[in-house]
Amino acid sequence: MGDLLRYRTDEAHEEPAVTLDGFLGQSNATAVRIEAGEDARALLPHLDRLALVEVSFPKFRDGRGYSTGRILREAGYTGELRAQGDVLVDQIPLMRRCGFDSFAPEAPVDEAVLAASLARYEYHYQAAADPAMPVWKRRHG
Amino acid sequence: MYKYDEYDHSIVASRVEEFRDQVQRRLAGQITEDQFKPLRLMNGLYLQLHAYMLRVAVPYGTLDSRQMHMLAHIARKYDRGYGHFTTRQNLQYNWIKLEDAPDILADLATVEMHAIQTSGNCIRNISSDQFAGAAADELTDPRPWAELLRQWSSFHPEFSYLPRKFKIAVIAAEEDRAAMRLHDIGLRIVERDGRLGAEVYVGGGMGRTPMIAPLIKDFVPFDDFVSYLEACLRVYNRYGRRDNMYKARIKILIHELGAEQYAAEVEEEFRAVKALGIDPPQAEFDRIAAHFAPPAYDARAADELDRSDPDFAVWLDQNVSAHKQPGYAVVTISLKPIGGIPGDASADQIDLMADLAERFSFDELRVTHAQNIVLPHVRKADLHTVWQQLRDAGLAEANLDLISDIIACPGLDYCSLANARSIPLAQKIATRFSDIGRQRELGELKLKISGCINACGHHHAGHIGILGVDRKGVENYQLLLGGSGAEDVSLGTITGPGFSEDGIVDAIERATDVYLRERDEGERFLDTYRRLGMAPFKEAIYG
User: How far A141 CA sits from the closest chain B CA (Å)?
Assistant: First the structure.
């Protein structure tokens, strides 16, 4: 198990995440775990009471969670968005762009490699769920 | 054609650095081959039977002489002196060393080229009409749309780990020279109420389950173009199958959901996505489109041609197409010499084609999905000189769209997935039909060979298609008739039991004999097949 990597300044959320079904049937949970095939849109009516959404990446090839992350951020979710599972160092920059701000990788991540890779691209072509300005906007103001 | 600005340069340079770092970590054993595989694949690097294969992107098939010269240089320096032009309008090298790959990318970056997303489960190089900007029948040049998509799809953070690969083609003419509806997304640029937009077809493809893409949306204006495609991809990323890689392409999702249901899901997603402001402004389209402005044609260029040289006249009739500008023509250079390897070109030939482009075609070349090269803007007065130089380099085969203009995948000679060899069969067929008079008598006849069911050789879309299979350890070839990748798109039908390598050549000959006997005035092989159906062909082939 790798260490938890966080890109947030608030305290890490302590409450264990419940399943999506559990969350929807339970009015007071503040942390939920979304499995790869589950519909993140089911959470949209409840975003204001959520402090942590953990998104499962069962295999690094399974990219459904990238859409989950963006959907939640696009709907205005501002709590912690954590990628958990088979999360590889080369994927974290993409996940950051999809709105993830914490990572619980199964295998340890080389932090020097990660830091270099997060700093590598100065520009991005397209808009996503991070503050990066797309290149077309830089070109045209 | 498109030129990089500081942003494009910066992004591609970052990619070279990133891949160099990834290769170093792999060579140092810090990542496993399993973990490295998606990283190298997203950069076009495959491990084949004998070596690494590197696929270089040629965005929408357009390149200039400087880029073409670089392809020749890389062939000499890092490979065995040749390259292979592919059905995705790219170029691949077959004998690459992993440790050289970062240096090759650095060399490519000096001429604004890369290998980004030429493989992997991501949005691949965008393909287009090889006659874009020159075709007499086009509404507009489709390449600004394709370049916009190249930028949108490059390192797209949400769509880099899709269920499966994703191919997009853009055309803007009635005639479909890009097999548009056999792509995951096919786009035809059309005009409505004075505005340009796209007809969107989704869910086509070849492979083991060939499908023709249905129309999902009849008009998406430029203002919604990126949002709409984002919605198309998001629905696929979320709901495409991941339990079985053979059912993971978007065509299966659309087949299972139904085109209407898929369209409804996209519409709903589009409403959410459109609010995000992710569509580039018209000014960005105009900026890109300015790069594709027509070249400075000579308005006084003569429209007459001297056809007195009979060999030249044959080549003119076969390999030269109408240009929108009077006095100019579009030249297709066949990479299908009789007995050669379809799509291969030596470094010297690549250099020569680059020189011809620089001197005679406003510095532009195109790669076609049929694995040929195009000089898009040649003055008619220069055609004879161009032809002579091509002839001296073994590049003047006058067989465009004839039976020897064969699409063939690399097959078992190179590919680790293949069941049968494609190249030797293509050579045998071309040799059997080598007589140019006989080929011209047979007329347009698109023959396509795949060495396995993945269909990289487009056999489903061949007027005559051939699929190589493995039957108890022996190569066996199935014959298909009636496919088309053009605007009259259709999928071929298997004739019956398969053949040996020699048997299939005989079978093709018998099929073409039926055509010659039965055709009506003006009919192509495909038309006769469609009129008569399979029966007479089957009888002749197996009878």
Answer: 10
pTM of the complete model: 0.96
Token duo for residue A15: 């409450």
Interchain pair A126, B17: CB under 8 A? no
DSSP label at residue B54: E
- CA-based nearest residue to B318, from B336, B305, B337, B331: B331
Half-sphere exposure of residue A118, counting CA atoms within 13 Å on the CB side? 16
Task: Tell me the residue range of the domain where B16 lies.
Answer: 6-109
Helices (H), B121-240: 143-153, 225-239
Q: What is the pLDDT of residues B403-460, one digit of tens each?
A: 999 999 999 988 889 999 999 999 999 999 999 999 999 999 999 999 999 999 999 9
The count of structural domains within chain A is: 1
Are B385 and B415 part of one and the same domain? no
Distance (Å) from the alpha carbon of B79 to chain A's nearest alpha carbon: 29
Contact between A63 and B121 using a beta-carbon 8 Å cutoff: yes
**Model pLDDT for residues B239-257, shown as the tens digit of each residue:** 999 999 999 999 999 999 9
B129: left (phi over 0), alpha (psi -120 to 50) or beta: beta
Report the alpha-carbon distance of residue B34 to residue B335 in Å, rounded: 36
> Same domain, yes or no, for B160 and B277?
yes
Q: How close B228 gets to chain A, by Cα (Å)?
A: 14
Measured distance CA(B173)–CA(B487) in Å, rounded = 10
Asked if residue B195 and residue B255 are part of one domain, the reply reads: yes
Query: The domain spanning residue A102 has which CATH number?
Result: 3.40.50
B366-376 residue pLDDT tens: 999 999 999 99
Say how many domains are in chain B. Answer: 4
- Can you give the residue range of the structural domain that contains A133? 5-140
Compare CB distances from B272 to A74, A90, A138 and report the shortest one's residue: A74
- Decide: helix, strand or coil at residue A43: helix
Nearest to B160 by CA among B55, B41, B15: B41
- Contact of B272 with chain A, judged by CB distance below 8 Å, is answered with yes
CB contacts under 8 A, A 22-81 vs B, are 36, 39, 60-64, 66-67, 70-71, 74
Q: How far, in Å, are B210, B337, B351, B460 from residue B489 at the CA level?
A: 12, 27, 35, 10
Confirm whether the ipTM is greater than 0.90. Answer: yes
Pairing type for strands B62-64 and A102-105 reads unpaired
Q: Between the CA of residue A18 and those of A23, A47, A53, B73, what are the distances in Å? A: 6, 15, 10, 58
Q: Are residues B358 and B461 in the same domain?
A: no
Query: For residues B204-233, b (16+ Cβ closer than 10 Å) or e, as one string?
Result: bbbbeebbbbbebbeebebbbbbbbbbbbb
- Provide the b/e sequence for B475-506 (b: ≥16 CB within 10 Å): bbbbbbbbbbbbeebbbbbebeebbebeebbe
Could you tell me if B134 and B377 are in contact, meaning their C-beta atoms sit under 8 angstroms apart? yes
Nearest Cβ partner for A136 among B39, B242, B280:
B280
